[in-house]
């Protein structure tokens, strides 16, 4: 290979948190492939590749580091004929660093250590790591390569120090989770660093689902002018070769023959949901998924995602009609199940519902029917689904969306019962967009399901708008309040009725106790319910127009 050419291989791979042995095998396989088939000078892995990301409190266990050291040694022994940039937690007498080791011929020759430790949103790195401020520049294939880790590329100082230390280009390894528009935000930030330093950047990112997070990969290369020259397909594992040529103006990345276009917002969200379901179910050792198929839009979209993630043979759909279930719901559920080829069952809940009412007759004597009886129906369904899950080792995939979760329009131990909430961070208006998008790929959701007014079907002629504002209004208010932390006056100034705004905010606050008991779900927005948004259940903080200490039903 000419000294005027540098070949870097990006390992955009899917790893499992805590599985150091398995991750080491994956890294060694990628290393050998990059050396033997891509003739690369160096393979670069994602941030904390050896442990997976985020390892969270596993990093507080002393035995964790014994396993890390053992796996690291196994990898080192396989590094011959190619350099390796390996992300891992580096334990030292001073503390633990979020590090990237440069390994050459079995020896660690340098460490790059993360400087900017994110401690916001879903990130908690200051709990585990200490920062380091030294520039790491190593010679690779004739070029001086500077190394940064994830967040450090978002700030001017670390790349600038690399340039001052003589770097010709920058390798940035990441475990950057997906949310809507995240790819655009990354490219804008990296472009700023490229223009400030005049250096090209290789941005290598993790791919795969980890609990509520989805890592989209979407790795890319930029030249010193901040122009993308190469993109790696998002949401897929890929070993990608990046070539640099030495020119009079420095080391320049070779322009890809075909530059991939970024995915549309709807396509990226859908792929994130599919990947999140696939990895959560499979990495946790379940045989597939089971879904309560109601004939409504949420369960229809959830079923489509589950089939795309796991295959129709691994999915069981159960229609559980009650006395209030419309005939069209039964018909549409059956049609979708046939179209997707899933294992489909109809189990009516009239008998268990009646039995519960009989058992509770004395307790309820003299009291009018209300939401209690509606919730009993939902809980009958929850019991049935969980029984199927226990017996068949299929995970219950719940179907509630973010709009419902925000305002408590869901039943504890009923439709909230399950292992994974596929649409937990998907607003209702986006549910419709995703359903239409999926039908463009192939028609799998009956059009009548998309067109009909949404209803929980727990009472006669019930519609969601009986209890909630129209979803286009509700979702706009929720986005401003939940995701942007806007107050009443700010939201009202955008043209929304003050009484409705206050009612929605009160509902969000009252139902924190419900959300705390909900299963984890896939994060696709900048502020999801879960580790992303941490509010007390018991609180004396009152919103305008709200009494102190109120709770949901």
UniProtKB/TrEMBL annotation:
Its EC number is 6.3.5.1. GO terms for cellular component: cytoplasm. The active site is at residues 47, 114, 150. CDD domains: GAT_Gln-NAD-synth, NAD_synthase. ATP binds at residues 292-299, 399. Pfam families: CN_hydrolase, NAD_synthase. It catalyses: deamido-NAD(+) + L-glutamine + ATP + H2O = L-glutamate + AMP + diphosphate + NAD(+) + H(+). GO terms for biological process: NAD+ biosynthetic process. L-glutamine binds at residues 120, 176, 182. GO terms for molecular function: ATP binding; glutaminase activity; NAD+ synthase (glutamine-hydrolyzing) activity; NAD+ synthase activity. Residues 6-260 form the CN hydrolase domain. Deamido-NAD(+) binds at residues 375, 404, 514. SUPFAM superfamilies: Adenine nucleotide alpha hydrolases-like (SSF52402), Carbon-nitrogen hydrolase (SSF56317). The keyword Nucleotide-binding applies. The keyword ATP-binding applies. Pathway: Cofactor biosynthesis; NAD(+) biosynthesis; NAD(+) from deamido-NAD(+) (L-Gln route): step 1/1. Keywords: ATP-binding, Ligase, NAD, Nucleotide-binding. Catalyzes the ATP-dependent amidation of deamido-NAD to form NAD. Uses L-glutamine as a nitrogen source. PANTHER family: GLUTAMINE-DEPENDENT NAD(+) SYNTHETASE, NH 3 /GLUTAMINE-DEPENDENT NAD + SYNTHETASE. In the C-terminal section; belongs to the NAD synthetase family. Belongs to the NAD synthetase family. This is Glutamine-dependent NAD(+) synthetase. It comes from Thiohalophilus thiocyanatoxydans. The gene is nadE.
